[in-house]
Amino acid sequence: VKIVTLLTDFGVVDTYVAQMKGVIYSLAPQCSVVDLTHAIAPQDIAAGAAALRDTAFLFPPGTVHVAVIDPGVGTDRRLMAAEVAGHFFVLPDNGLLSLLLEAYPLQGAVELTRAEFWRSTVSRTFHGRDILAPVAAQIVNGRTLAELGGAIGEIQRLAAPRWEKSHGGLAGVIVSVDHFGNAITNFPERLFVDFEVGASLCTVINGRELQWKWCTAYGFAPRQSPIALVGSNGCLELAINCGSAAAEFQLRAGDPVLIGNIKFSGER
Amino acid sequence: VKIVTLLTDFGVVDTYVAQMKGVIYSLAPQCSVVDLTHAIAPQDIAAGAAALRDTAFLFPPGTVHVAVIDPGVGTDRRLMAAEVAGHFFVLPDNGLLSLLLEAYPLQGAVELTRAEFWRSTVSRTFHGRDILAPVAAQIVNGRTLAELGGAIGEIQRLAAPRWEKSHGGLAGVIVSVDHFGNAITNFPERLFVDFEVGASLCTVINGRELQWKWCTAYGFAPRQSPIALVGSNGCLELAINCGSAAAEFQLRAGDPVLIGNIKFSGER
Amino acid sequence: VKIVTLLTDFGVVDTYVAQMKGVIYSLAPQCSVVDLTHAIAPQDIAAGAAALRDTAFLFPPGTVHVAVIDPGVGTDRRLMAAEVAGHFFVLPDNGLLSLLLEAYPLQGAVELTRAEFWRSTVSRTFHGRDILAPVAAQIVNGRTLAELGGAIGEIQRLAAPRWEKSHGGLAGVIVSVDHFGNAITNFPERLFVDFEVGASLCTVINGRELQWKWCTAYGFAPRQSPIALVGSNGCLELAINCGSAAAEFQLRAGDPVLIGNIKFSGER
Asked: Do residues C145 and C156 touch, judged by C-beta distance below 8 A?
């Protein structure tokens, strides 16, 4: 069974997502369509890129991932189909693959120009339904990228948020806040190998100094206490056990984070 | 693979939708159940009818569409199975097919009276799970409508909101407001064939005069500017590029819309 | 087709649910993954237990139900696979099966200890993705419970909320409030067999006396009037037809409910 995943900023109130599923199942009834999430903030390409990086390669090779965060719909921005690590991606060429391509090479990309693979009538505002969905079904049905359009040389890449050394500490950012109110940063696990359980991590966020106890799992901390740990995507996460760090400390995606007391293994 | 779609006003917090899926998969494990949306406002039959019209026929012929917006559950309102354009519909006879039947003829409808195709215990409050879901599975398994109950002559029809000429302009309505805050009206595309990109469309909504620039796609407009365009369902849509027209101008489904400066091709 | 259901407190904004689906489909591409709900309040094991009881056995025998409401993730709490009534459950041993086990015997349970069936790298915070999802796929693929780990004697059980006679009436609780604002209590249907349509049910909730008219279905009551009826899970439900009882009377899950005027058949 071939899988098609859908990632959009459409929400789940309207029927836009279902309209795409209808088109895909009409052309490729044997596939399974699976939602990644439809709750990407409208037009937030960076959040879409993070969702693809965190999720796409957990699916089986050959999966077709359709991503529709597409502020340029109807303009002359390119639509493309790309192959990365044996997975297929059907999406606008606007940076959605950026984070995933930091770890995996682009195996190929074509611009979607062959209208015979689209719906016969193409709206100006919903290319997800009218172009991307039918093209995804064509890939499920065995079409190669080369059949779908001409090769693209360079695709759009967004700069990922970086962390850096700063004033004897580290400067980074809150990449996202999840459903539990955990703030997920961009500091990778390797920076914290010397931290021991119970050690204190000192941060400055939005001008406010916050102390977090180092933990290996939420459940080890007292309820309602602020903790720091390595989250499931391998980056530093700031949390409150059985509470919401985001609500307690007004943390939001995009907030800069300074860590004051970290030492590098190599520097000691 | 046969597809069963579900359209309800149940939301996705409770397990009501999952209970229906369990019943369907128990009787027809080879089908795929797909959500249209479960965010129809409670008891909003008109919104359910619009969702069916916009989405159902994008799925493959033979799909079984189950719709549960059912304020009369447990009373003597009729439940029915109907066939339209080679698709099957299992739902209360309360107008949910009205908008779809404006473009396609009803091929047949039966009242669901044969209790041997229902769950053995039928609750008074959840016929979606106890009658509609098992009947949908029976259709997937090859039962004909005639096996499910006796033919219905006339089914319920709701009047669709109309547009009309009024004081030298047009009078219509906002049919829905989507996740992006776009206001989707009931003025069809053909009224605007003479509008050129950049032209100004003048509306009065809730006593307030609003100006919209005519566009062919969101991305062509400056960010935050009010635009008018033909949306993906072929009707006039009022939007703000990278913003929410609904939030900015307090637009809601049901609001009357007057267009002041439109000219008909035939009138010039 | 084998079915895997997912029940979590993850919400549907993040990609955590999709990450679990990716892992399951990678190992067992022939199964269908179905959502029960992901809107259980964070760490609310009792609500998860109610969702499993209301929903699991509507699916076909052999279904694998994965439940991740797991405040103890990463600590030494046990993960287990269990069999009840021919269904399989993969979840933490924290009481999630309690309500379901009031009606069905536990056929067997094993602690998940065989790491060769897990993802090769196991995070400290997301065992749903790294242990439970791959184990569920193994069961789909035909592994027996005995292959997954050693037998467990006693599993955790939570006390279900009870109703009791009190001061000549009944004392119980609001178990949940649904999407429609209906308050679902824990008083079973059999207590109300002598109630006739139109009779008045008198309750005290949060110190406030409330009168409800006994109905058999929402649609029989005047719009906006407070009604009491037996809901789809067989318990007393307090509702407002075409309105929200929860919003009108500030009802919440956990609120104690006193019924003042009920008589037992056996007592007359």
From this structure: no
Asked if pLDDT for residue B268 goes beyond 70, the answer is: no
Please check the confidence at residue C35 and state whether its pLDDT lies above 90. Answer: yes
C42 to A229: CB separation less than 8 angstroms, yes or no: no
Lowest mean per-residue pLDDT among A6-15, A134-143, A213-222, C39-48: A213-222
Considering only the beta carbons, identify the residue of C13, C29, C75 that sits closest to A220.
Answer: C75
List, in sequence order, every residue forming a beta bridge with A35; answer none if it has no partner.
A6
pLDDT band at A263 (very low <50, low <70, confident <90, very high): low
This model of the complex carries an ipTM of 0.93
Q: Cβ of B41 under 8 Å from any chain A Cβ?
A: no
- State the Cα–Cα distance between residues A211 and A227, nearest whole angstrom: 8
pLDDT tops 70 at residue C22: yes
CB-based contact B84:B100 (threshold 8 Å)? yes
Q: What is the mean pLDDT of chain A?
A: 93
Helix axes of A16-27 and B45-55: crossing angle, nearest 10 degrees: 30
Residue A265: what pLDDT?
43
For residue B124, give the nearest of C36, C59, C229 by CB distance: C229
Confidence of residue B262 (pLDDT cuts 50, 70, 90): low
Strand-pair partners of A257: A172, A205
- Chain A: residue whose CA lies nearest to C22: A59
Structure-derived torsion over alpha carbons of residues A166, A167, A168, A171, reported in degrees to the nearest 10: -30
pTM of the entire structure? 0.94
* Res A266 pLDDT > 50: no
> How sure is the predictor about B260, in pLDDT bands with cuts at 50, 70 and 90?
confident
Q: What Cα–Cα distance (Å) separates residue C86 from each residue in A87, A148, A168, B174?
A: 36, 47, 60, 51
Is A249 in a helix, a strand, or coil? helix
Number of residues written out for chain A = 268
Q: How far apart are CA B169 and CA B246, in angstroms?
A: 23
* Maximum CA extent, chain A: 65
Query: Which residues is C238 bridged to in the sheet?
Result: C183, C228
* Strands B87-92, B79-84: pairing kind: antiparallel
CB–CB contact B71 C218 (8 Å): yes
Shortest distance, CA C36 to any CA of chain B (angstroms): 5
DSSP H or E segment with residue A32: strand A32-37
Q: B76 vs chain A: nearest CA distance in angstroms?
A: 30
Cα A190 from Cα A236, distance rounded (Å): 10
> Which chain C residue has the Cα nearest residue B29?
C1
Report the C-alpha gap between B8 and B25 in whole angstroms.
18
In terms of CA atoms, which chain A residue is nearest residue B40? Answer: A13
